[in-house]
Sequence to fold (133 residues):
Amino acid sequence: MTLGPDRTTCATELREAMRAQLDTMDPPQGGNVDNPQVKPNFDALGDGVWRILTQDAETISAAAQDPTFWAFLAALRTEVEQLRAFDAGLRAAFAAWDPTLPASGATLKAAIAALTVPASTPTAPTSLNGRIR
Fold:
């Protein structure tokens, strides 16, 4: 369930939680939450909760909350470093190449062939996990 674009979901959840609580009374009183005079109170509470969660709270993600995402970032960083090493090796190979020397072409070809090509890019997670604090 998402919070939605406004207080509606929060107000509904608060209203239904209160209904369940009031229905434990003898006689059950859960129907009181449907009173039109009570609705504005739940809407106000829902608005407050929604603002806390969407505007005031700080969301964080760390390895403890989302090891899959952080493993993806680590793998991505490894790939970037491999690409940098590949680029440096390619630049060095071409810097050492002298097109006026026939043997230099073979040296260039061998230097390029010896480069380690980075593995494929890791698959990104389809969602993120975190927590609100």
Summary: The chain has a mean pLDDT of 91. DSSP finds four helices and two strands in the chain.
